[in-house]
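4.2 Preliminary Data

To establish feasibility before requesting continued support, the project team ran the inverse folding procedure on a target of 131 residues. The structure was first converted into the token representation described in Section 3, and no sequence information of any kind was made available to the design step. The complete token record follows.
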């Protein structure tokens, strides 16, 4: 019989993998039932591990497309897909997403802040790990 091991939250291996990524994909579902996948990129480590059950990043001004945010207004279930292309490894994480306003969460902003990154922050996105 094969032995299965279950962890609550992220493992150290997963935390390390996440901290080395400079991009990931966010999959949401709209009210119409169709999935939408959006690429998010930034400096290495911009997606931060806050603790073993939470990830977060600062969303910066970009292409002015707010489809993912609109989808999250009606369904906060999200799939994250992180890829290490050179080593042919990937990590898929099911999360629930929450939008956090910059002005309302200065402590969270400081924990997600990127030193010397020159883009204008718009909001913060927090992911609660489900699986």
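Position-by-position output of the design step:
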């Amino acid at each position: 019989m094969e032995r299965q091991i279950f962890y609550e939250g992220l493992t150290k291996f997963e935390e390390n993998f996440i901290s080395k990524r400079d991009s990931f994909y966010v999959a949401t579902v709209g009210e119409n039932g169709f999935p939408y996948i959006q690429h998010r990129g930034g400096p290495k480590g911009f997606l931060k591990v806050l603790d073993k059950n939470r990830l977060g990043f600062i969303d910066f001004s970009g292409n002015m497309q707010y489809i993912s945010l609109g989808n999250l207004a009606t369904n906060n279930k999200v799939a994250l897909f992180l890829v290490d292309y050179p080593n042919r490894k990937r990590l898929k994480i099911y999360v629930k997403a929450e939008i956090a306003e910059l002005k309302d969460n200065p402590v969270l902003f400081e924990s997600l802040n990127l030193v010397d990154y020159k883009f204008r922050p718009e909001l913060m996105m927090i992911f609660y790990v489900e699986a």
